[in-house]
Amino acid sequence: MNYLDFDKTEGYKKLVALASGRGHFDFAASLNAERVRQRVVPMAAGLTYSWAAKAVERPELDLLQALADEQELIGKYRAILEGETMNTGEHRTVLHHLLRGQVGKPVIHEGKNIGEFYKQELDRFSAFADQVHAGKIRGSTGKVFTTAVQIGIGGSDLGPRALYLALENWAAAAGKGHLRAKFISNVDPDDASQIAASCSLEETIFVLVSKSGTTQETLANELFIKDKLIQAGLDPRKHITAVTSETSPLAHNPAYLDSFYIDDFIGGRYSSTSGVGGVILSLAFGPEAFKELLAGAHEADTLALEPDILKNAALLDALIGVWERNFCGLPYTAVLPYSQALSRFPAHLQQLDMESNGKRVNRKGEPVAYATGPVVFGEPGTNGQHSFYQLLHQGTDIVPLQFVGFTESQRGDDVTVDGSVSQTKLKANLAAQIVAFAKGKTDTNQNKEFLGGRPSSLIYGKRLTPKALGALLSHFENKVMFQGLVWNLNSFDQEGVQLGKVLTKQVLSGNSGDSALDAYSEILGI
Amino acid sequence: MNYLDFDKTEGYKKLVALASGRGHFDFAASLNAERVRQRVVPMAAGLTYSWAAKAVERPELDLLQALADEQELIGKYRAILEGETMNTGEHRTVLHHLLRGQVGKPVIHEGKNIGEFYKQELDRFSAFADQVHAGKIRGSTGKVFTTAVQIGIGGSDLGPRALYLALENWAAAAGKGHLRAKFISNVDPDDASQIAASCSLEETIFVLVSKSGTTQETLANELFIKDKLIQAGLDPRKHITAVTSETSPLAHNPAYLDSFYIDDFIGGRYSSTSGVGGVILSLAFGPEAFKELLAGAHEADTLALEPDILKNAALLDALIGVWERNFCGLPYTAVLPYSQALSRFPAHLQQLDMESNGKRVNRKGEPVAYATGPVVFGEPGTNGQHSFYQLLHQGTDIVPLQFVGFTESQRGDDVTVDGSVSQTKLKANLAAQIVAFAKGKTDTNQNKEFLGGRPSSLIYGKRLTPKALGALLSHFENKVMFQGLVWNLNSFDQEGVQLGKVLTKQVLSGNSGDSALDAYSEILGI
Fold first, then answer.
1. Chain pair A-B, CB pairs under 8 angstroms
2. What residues of chain A lie within 8 A of the CB of B419, using their CB?
3. For position B43, what pLDDT does the model report?
């Protein structure tokens, strides 16, 4: 496989030339019903990717397809699936796809079949959840568990939390709600204190998640909770289960009810489909719901092998994003789900994207001379319409938009007002926004004029189920992966977190070695 | 007063010249203890604005001061306070400062003293909250209210919700927790359905908030809730109170327990210190807590009259932001509170800033030729450190940062791990990040190198109390106002929301008049 910096490819040069000769894209003239019906790519789990409102035409598509071929994106994806060392900084393979099922050949590492290991852990924590639900595993006073609290940060928090919130209403409507879940993440002691105070501790099981078993915030919060359990006369060993790697201090440790394992081939932000997300989601909604989520992700992972960009939603989405980032000069993208259930999904995608591709060196550690990952932000619609959409419509800069929407609500509980139910209003707003952003509106009063030309994509489906959610999650993981491959990055390390950790330790040791750091510590009352 | 487009000012030309001749700013050499101690501006309520880690020196400061003087920022602020028509699009005065107290002369509109009107409404809803707390106002089955649910969207949701979350732990620790608050905002029916299902309706009071009384989402959610109340055998008239304008259909309406009023001079995103935020916060924490919040905001409003930019935190913050936006070319800014209580404060600031200054026309409706409001996003630290900070540290672009931190936690409930409490760890992380972003770190392995040069500000204080929160809120409101004045914008309208509303109505009427809109409606199953 040939790993080339993006600006060394033929495709890059051709795209630069194309962009420089390109005029204003006129959506008002070109966005019609035919375009909307034709520019769709089927995704996994019944979802569809619509790119009608993207400002790309045949010339861009041809060059983007040629770029995908030249950068061997599908071949490199296959290499990831088959266990090549793709996390070049940390010399690791990247195997989160294998959590959902085997797409390529089996991956054997040091004699161990990794896929079988992941399957075994899935079976173990599924059985654990079943036992909790059956009342066979109980708290130290004999009460059944009604609440599960995840203690973790970053990838051990944002993804699992976003997925939990995404399925809470689905589960309520489907009668699949088992334990209620809560999350403690921040080292701010108010976070753990508030959550602990809100729980009936004797009915609460804690899921302690840290791959290394050394995460400062998570260990502080673990001890915080252990103190509370002991103060309440409870035995912490009966109230905490761990998710970690086999080499961590949390592994095989009698301080916990049980421990479930991941390994170094699963990056934090890619770990939602491992025990990191699986234990809490199985406790909350049952192992079958979590397995459906895995099935949706697996189906999407398989579809992502398609080399034709017009048949591979993740690949097309990635390449259009590269076009917007590198050739239209747009440094951000907004994620706008028209689904309250996806309220924290943008925060997860923010980590997924910005931590993977917010890099200035290539996979060999050499600086690159082109823009890489964009800033990602977002809130659910229609809420955002009454907030930051003003800038998106009429600001001085263009922000590419990523919409998500569903035909049906999750709870099916609705009200008719002025002749339509709320779910219809929600969808009408979504359709209206896409067209408003693209086409704009002329007005003699320029304060009421909308220039349009704001590109957007739309992922839509029938209903947000575990399977659809898994497909959605995988879509974005694979999109980010393809972009990282275009940019020749290592999307799987995060060296940018290290310096802060080192300086924090220096402050806490009382010997920072930096006068500014001492002065900041002083004004903050350390 | 002279309203000039920014690029027509002398200051603009001088700043362009300064920026073009300016080299790399070397924080590693210049950020030391002296700089940290000296570059602070006292704010209201004991807060402090630190700008040591901003890349501005004497030449920038001199030009920014001259710009502030040339654009008559303080004079224009005073004109706002005294009721000049500053919302030029809608021909309205802008009086949210008056909600907190009178800074300038009394404002008389059509013979009415507006400040007295605001004070009267504050007194009315304070008394209302007291009566609810005393059990004198009860639900229709005679039970006392234990939960208050706000129904509102945009400014009627994000600000009040952010403030509620910011004070929940303060109230718990101070014994000031009265009613628990929840929020319904989205027209997605799952939002209202989930919240309704989570409440004991006979013990719940709803606060219906819509200035116009015609907000589509809010009216749909009101009827949703009324149905639920009726189905539960309850009388909606005994469970809903309204916050609206006196000309709205919700005013003086026997369908509600009571109605509290604002007027057209209070923009949605500036309404948190009116009954829009005041009713729910007074129900939750008592009227005295809300009045302390107002006192903090009023103190900050008064300090913002100071013409010396080195003594006016909101003004300095605004001008440094303009420097970064227009002369350093940085199109975004991140808000990073090291306080879990401020978890939704960035979402409020996102609306406040992007809806106020995301404009491409000046206050007379003429297009401007310079960049205006930036994209604003953020999450609490330390959570963000394990997420998108990778891009902030090592991405190809620079994102200016706004940190917030406090000496003490709100609940005072903490644990010692490895020789320090969690609150100390939180602060050590904050100090470390500021220095890491500014100074970076050289490394022979460029993947482990940090270029530094990432500018940040820090607002710090002893503890997040209602008064400090009011000061913080006002700081950002006034910062955004000053930036809008520099850019010669009308920061107080939001025409960008209109087109989507019109197209939504067309979809719902079944006659969209646009084939693309019809096709999107079709694929979404409308």
1. 504
2. 508
3. 98
pLDDT beyond 80 at B23: no
**Residue B276 domain-assigned?**
yes
Mean pLDDT of chain A: 97
**Measured distance CA(B267)–CA(B270) in Å, rounded:** 5
Partner residue opposite B507 with nearest CB, options A411, A428, A523: A428
Q: Are residues B467 and B404 in the same domain?
A: yes
Specify the CATH number for the domain of residue A272: 3.40.50.10490
Mark whether B458 and B478 lie in a shared domain: yes
Residue A187, min C-alpha distance to chain B (Å) = 6
Q: B204 and B167 share a domain?
A: yes
Determine the pLDDT at residue A89.
Answer: 84
pLDDT of residue A21: 85
pLDDT at B372 over 90: yes
Token pair of B412 as six digits: 């005072």
Is B60 inside a domain boundary?
yes
Which residue did the predictor score with more confidence, A318 or A25?
A: A318
Hey, what's the torsion of the CAs at A300, A301, A302, A308, to 10 degrees? Answer: 80
State whether B24 and B59 are in the same domain: yes
Mean pLDDT rounded to a whole number for chain B: 97
Residue to mutate among A190, A342, A362, A420, with most B CBs inside 10 A, is A190
Based on the fold, state whether residues B376 and B446 are members of the same structural domain.
Answer: yes
- Residues of B tagged active-site: 355, 386, 501
Q: Is A220 on the interface with B (CB under 8 A)?
A: yes
Token pair 């950002």 is found at: B476
B183 neighbourhood in chain A, CB within 8 Å? none
Q: Are A485 and A503 members of one domain?
A: no
Q: Which residue of A has its CA nearest to B51?
A: A520
Instruction: Identify the domain boundary among A257, A291, A325.
Output: A291
Domain boundary among A262, A291, A320: A291
- Whether the pLDDT of residue B346 is over 80: the answer is yes
Q: Note the pLDDT tens digit of each residue in B136-165.
A: 999 999 999 999 999 999 999 999 999 999
- Whether residue B406 is contained in a domain is answered as yes
Residues A399-435 pLDDT 10s: 999 999 999 999 999 999 999 999 999 999 999 999 9
Residues 6 or more apart in contact with residue B27 via CB below 8 angstroms: B53, B55, B438, B439, B440, B452, B453
Q: What percent of chain A has pLDDT over 90?
A: 96
Do A283 and A330 share a domain, yes or no?
Answer: no
**CB spacing of B193 vs A413 below 8 angstroms:** yes
Domain extent, residue A115, equals: 106-291
**Touching check for A46 and chain B: CB below 8 Å?**
no
Within 8 A of A216 by CB-CB distance, chain B residues are 425
In the three-class reduction of DSSP (H, G, I as helix; E, B as strand; rest coil), residue B98 is classed as helix
- Which residues of chain A does B216 touch, with a Cβ-Cβ cutoff of 8 Å? 425
Whole-number Å distance between alpha carbons of A496 and A287: 35
Residues of A catalogued as catalytic: 355, 386, 501
| DSSP string of A241-282, one letter each residue | EEEEETTSTTTT-TTSS-EEEE-TTS-GGG-TTSHHHHHHHH
pLDDT of residue A25: 85
Q: Which residues pair with A181 in a beta bridge?
A: A148
Interval A316-345: pLDDT, tens: 999 999 999 999 999 999 999 999 999 999
Q: How far apart, in Å, do the first and last CA atoms of chain B sit?
A: 51
Number of independent structural domains in chain A: 3
Asked if residue A184 and residue A118 are part of one domain, the reply reads yes
pTM over 0.90: yes
Which chain B residues contact residue A369 at CB under 8 A? Answer: none
Residue A88 lies in a domain: no
Q: Is B312 on the interface with A (CB under 8 A)?
A: no
Helix (H) or strand (E) holding B48: strand B48-50
Question: Cα B277 to chain center, whole Å?
Answer: 12
B433 close contact with A: CB closer than 8 A? yes
Q: Do you find a cis peptide bond into B382, omega within 30 degrees of 0?
A: yes
